[in-house]
């Protein structure tokens, strides 16, 4: 067996390997070539730093990686590890992880990150054996159809609205805020949100909160869903919960019958979780966020 860069394969072959590797997974991750290309670009994944394990000339498993400098340190993200069905439970995952860590060391990676479905205990155990630790529980919250007219609207949130100025912009606008949440998962970061938007809340000229989100539209230009990535307020800001409610109302508050979702929502952001649950959002999927400090 040997390892081979995914960069040496055609797009069609890589997509076929992805789909075969995730056959029978907890959620359907089947992709078309166009969807795969969009994911590579949107998640800043690198075929150069990704590889397949090859046996008798055929790939039997792979790791898809992205590398990026975050807060001055080089971070690697494992954006997908899978083994094709006939080679599962044969130690292939262990070989893939060993090679991934060798690659990270060669590249000078200082921190490695990944997410795993919470119910995927074998994968989580494998990652732990290589030194990864669970740092957070993540959830995908979802609300279908029409949102209640008073969702997120409280007297305190209304006061927050009158005392602040919300500036709409693009995801890049939040990256230099002193309280930007760079520790959140890779796909929730500003650089991974293609065609996204932001709101930054200012009070007396100072930034006190922000939200990162994306609105999706169908081929007829109709708004079909809104996806929330982050909703954060500055540490010590006394009206933090009210401002979060104000930002949620601004992002989700239309009365259109659309899907409203969150992306990898951190369980540590309890104020927003409580506001979402009160508005009728439910958990669709749960993951764990894992990190490894490279030495």
From TrEMBL:
Give a single Pfam family match: Acetyltransf_1
- GO molecular function terms listed in the Swiss-Prot or TrEMBL record: acyltransferase activity, transferring groups other than amino-acyl groups
Q: Which UniProt keywords apply?
A: Ribonucleoprotein, Ribosomal protein
What CDD domains does the entry give?
NAT_SF (cd04301)
Q: Name one GO cellular component term.
A: ribosome
N-acetyltransferase domain mapped to chain residues = 1-156
Entry-linked PANTHER family: L-AMINO ACID N-ACETYLTRANSFERASE
Protein name, UniProt field: Ribosomal protein S18 acetylase RimI-like enzyme
Starting at the broadest rank, the lineage of the source organism is:
Bacteria, Bacillati, Bacillota, Bacilli, Bacillales
